Each structure stands twice: as C-alpha cells, then as structure tokens.
C-alpha cells in the first residue's frame, strides 16, 4: 500500500492550527529549537523485518491479519511507516528469513520507499530445514568444530547478502550458553566463541561494523556465552576496531543501570548500537517507552553527553534500531508508537542544561541535579517532534492517519487474514 503526499497534506491541514499554537508556545520555553528540529529530522530508526507481523509466546500466537508474507511486503510496510513519520528510513533483515531472490529488484523496491538496509542479522539459534548440524547445544561455542564451522559459514553468507544490499553491519546475537551447571566449561565456550567470531570478523568488508549483542538469559537459563556487556566488551575488544557492543534494552537482569552501561561503553568507544524496546520483567519486547519512559530518557541523556564529548554524529555514528514483538497491538501502530517514544526521549535529553548539570555535580548539589533532569523530562516536547515530522513531509499524527485510512483492513484485503510473517 502506497501513500500519496496529498493524503498526508490533507490530514495535516485539519490539525495544523492547533499544532502551530502548541509549537509556538513550546519554543518560547526552549533554547536552540531550530537546531533541535534539524537533529530530529536527521534522526532515523531502523525497523527489524521480524517485528512487522504478530509475535507470540510459547503459549500461542494470535494473528492480527494482513501480515507481510515476504521480504517485498515487509519493505512495503516499513516504507508506509516511514512515509507517515519520516523517522524510520531503514529495515534490518534476518537471514535466512529474508533471503532476497533478486538483489536488484529488492534494492530498487527499498529505494522507491526511500529506505536503506540497516544491520544484517544472522540466525544460529534455530535449526533450519535440511540443515546438517544442530544448534541444540550452541553454535559458535559448540564443542564440535563442524558445528562451529557451519555457524561461521552462515554468518559469512549473511555478510555476503548484506554487501549486495548495501548494508554496513552484521549483528550477531547468540543463544549459546547452558541450561545446567556442569553442562559446559565456561572458558572453553568463551574461547570457541571468540575463535569463531574472529573468522567471521575476518570476512567483514573494511567499512563494516560487527555488533556483538548480549543477553542475560533465555533460551539458556544457567549461563549465556555472551551474557552481559562485560562479556560482549571482552569479545569486541579482542576482535578489533570494527567490533562493538550492542545494547538491547530488554537483555539485562532486572533493575540494571543501563544508562551507566551506555555511558562507559561510549567512553571506551565500544558502543555500537541499540535495540530499543521496553520491559517489565525481562526480554518482554514491549513498545519502547511504554513501561519506563524515564529510563529511556536517562539513556538518551547519557548518549548525548557521551556522543557530544566524542564529537560523534547523533544520527549516523551509532546503530539505532527497534527490536520488539507485538502480541496484542497492531504491529505497525506499535512500531509508530515506539519511534515516537524514542524521538520524545531524544528531544527531552537534548533539552538538558548540561552546563548547569555539571555545576550541580561539582557542588554535590544532588537536589539541583534532579531538578535539571526532571525539568527536561517533564517538558511536553511532542510539538517539537511533530514539527520535525511536518517539515520532512510526514503526518502530524501518524497513528490517526493510519486509522483514518483503514490501513490494516486494506492490508487484510490484499494479503488475507491468516498470513504469517516469516520469522519466529
Ligand atoms: C532476540 C535478540 C536478537 C535477535 C532477535 C531474533 O534480541 O536481536 O536477532 O531476537 O528475533 O531476542
Ligand atoms: Mn535484540
Ligand atoms: Mn531480545
């Protein structure tokens, strides 16, 4: 389904007056609003191909209808999102779920939707049909060289698909680990994984990055071979300058101070990118900002502080992506909400008076420091985000327009009710 500019303009016409009055009021309270708007216009978030259909749990899956049936339709869905909010200009593919049949056609389709290909994701956490060796006891960590080789070859194949599509990074997320004490030797598992990653790293083109994603637990419950940021950083440091740690917000043990982790990884020049989502308990994969919006703001606060300190470009120097699963909401509405929450947290963090915060810190003025942060967090920045969207041709209210146009009903008509996006 393709959206016409005129439809967006008509939609905006209806609410532009209210928007303008809110916006004019907000900019009287905000310094540097023009520079913030231009940063917001540049800031783009990649959408994972596996989040476009309904997810599920081990208890079941409830299809919402009209899910993309193939890579082409996944690109169309992200294209539609990007047309609505102008802040989601990339799609991240998962191999083998998204193997292109015709690279040129896929590149053209993405271009027609103004999209690029973000990080490529490998999959050694499932056995595929016809696969020779099983990953039941791990992949890159496996005690059997032949299993490790199969997993290494798969990752190299993923890089090759990515090169064809113009991607510039590989994300390796491993389910490797153990379920019971004694099942494996921690050091051997680490060494095997490191040696395997080295072979994959050697196949990376010079302008590519490798993201090593960590996860505390699940599917393994006793140990995970890339279980936390310390282990990820160890691998990334030993691998070399093209390897970085990737932070998925849902991959920590409860109450972890993620903003501190982010700050230190940035300091070390080893933070590669993000998978945004939110959670109450663990890897819940809920909508970004739906449960702990203050934490999301605090993370952006550290990101901006650390990136500015290293003179990094906010929009392009880290990988920004959503990694979510949609069990009850319409996946596209849910993703639009996630992008909005990320943009809001980013904007609020841009408002923080860093000079005043530093002064408060030097004086150990704890109450003042909290006032400064919460002043920004409690500012309703939505008109700034909407203004950036308006200026880049998006809809003032993407979800309202999505509903006005009955997009889901149209997708169900086109694709059917019982479709299932490839993936988990
Ligand atoms: C996992 C990880 C990882 C992976 C994805 C697969 O977060 O990013 O690629 O889910 O669906 O939980
Ligand atoms: Mn992830
Ligand atoms: Mn996850």
Overview of the molecule:
The chain has 424 residues and is an alpha/beta fold. The protein is 48% helix and 9% strand. It has 15 helices and eleven strands. The chain has helices at 5-27, 33-42, 71-85, 103-112, 145-165, 186-202, 229-239, 258-267, 293-309, 331-351, 354-362, 366-377, 382-391, 398-404, 407-415, and strands spanning 46-48, 90-92, 116-117, 120-121, 169-173, 177-178, 209-213, 223-224, 243-248, 271-276, 319-322. It has a six-stranded parallel sheet with strand order 4-5-7-9-10-11. A three-stranded parallel sheet has the order 1-2-3, with helices on one face. A two-stranded antiparallel ribbon has the order 6-8. The longest helix is centred in the N-terminal third of the chain and has 23 residues, at 5-27. The protein starts with a helix and ends in a 9-residue tail after the last helix. The model has no long low-confidence stretch (mean pLDDT 97). One manganese (II) ion is lined by residues 173, 213, 248, 275, 323.
Question: How would you describe this structure in keywords?
Answer:
about 425 residues, alpha/beta, six-stranded parallel beta sheet, three-stranded parallel beta sheet, globular, binds alpha-D-allopyranose, binds manganese (II) ion
Q: Please provide the count of β strands.
A: 11
Strand order of the largest sheet: 4-5-7-9-10-11
Strand content: 5-15%
Structural class: alpha/beta
What's the main sheet like? 6 strands, parallel
Q: Report the order of strands and helices.
A: HHEHEHEEHEEHEEHEHEHEHHHHHH
What is the CA-atom radius of gyration, in angstroms? Answer: 22 Å
Bound molecules: alpha-D-allopyranose, manganese (II) ion
Fraction of residues in H or I helices: 40-55%
If helices are DSSP runs of H or I spanning 4 or more residues, what is the number of helices? 15
State the shape: globular
Span of the ends, CA to CA: 25 Å
Mean pLDDT: 97
pLDDT below 50 for ≥5 consecutive residues: which ranges?
A: none
